[in-house]
Each structure stands twice: as C-alpha cells, then as structure tokens.
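#onboarding

Welcome to the new folks! Below is a worked example of what a typical request in this channel looks like: someone posts a single protein sequence, and someone else replies with the predicted structure as tokens. Don't worry about understanding the tokens yet, we'll cover that in week two.

Example request:
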Amino acid sequence: MHTKSVLASIAAAIALAMVAAPAMPAMEADPLDVLIGNNPDFAEGKRAVEARDWKTAIKWLTAAERRSGRNADIQNYLGFAYRNDGQLDAAFRRYEQALKIDPRHRGAHEYIGEAYLMTKNLAKAEEHLVALKRSCPRVCEEYDDLSKKIADYRARNN
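Example response:
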C-alpha cells in the first residue's frame, strides 16, 4: 500500500508541475521556408539567386509574384536580382514595394541602402540604416552589413 501511495503522490506532483509550468513557446516556421514550400516558383527563383543567375531568378520570381500576390520577401528577392542584373530602376521599385508591404523588412532596408550607395546617394543609404537600427533587435546582421558598406563607401569617397 505504501508504494502505491508514494507513486500516486509522485504522479500527482508531476501532473501539477506540468500544469503550473509555463508553456514552451511554439517555434515559428521561417517565413522563407514556408514560402518555398508553398510556392515552387519562389523556390526556383531562390535557387537561381544562389547560383547568381539573375535573369533566370527574375523570371522565376516574377512567376512567384503572380502565384503569391503581395509578398515582401518576393519583392525583396526581385529587387536583389534586378540590382545584381544592373537594372537599378526596377530594383528600387521592388524594394519600395517590399517596404510598402512590410515597412520593417530588414532585408529590403539593407539592400535598398546598398542600391543607393551604387547611385552615390549616401544620405538615402543612411536613412535605411537608421530604419534598420529602429527595427532590429540587439544583434542585426542586416544593420551590420549595411553599416560596413556605408563605412567602406565613405572611406573610398573621402
């Protein structure tokens, strides 16, 4: 009898601890992984970006845009592909569209800042660095990358 009551007490304590313990936060899926899983055109476009095949990336990402509609990540990737293909006007339009959809999109702020440096517009690049500073947590790769590019730009142009 004594063993049963001890086991019952342990079971009750475990059950109580499970109820009283704070719930573990659910891990949120990476939005890019979700987009890749839901949009095969985006997956192809992302592969083309990784291969630095800008024209193919633009083709697939444009198809991804038709499939998914308003999506800041697709617009950002399109901007990146256009910028690397030398089509800066199209790149700016895509980055601006990404920022209309998601004003805090860190990748779009970083990349449009880099595009502004390409056009020698340091003031606009710095505006996007400030926006990154406001929207980033303590550690922010996008902020660090754009900050370094701005510092390099200043060093080359002073």
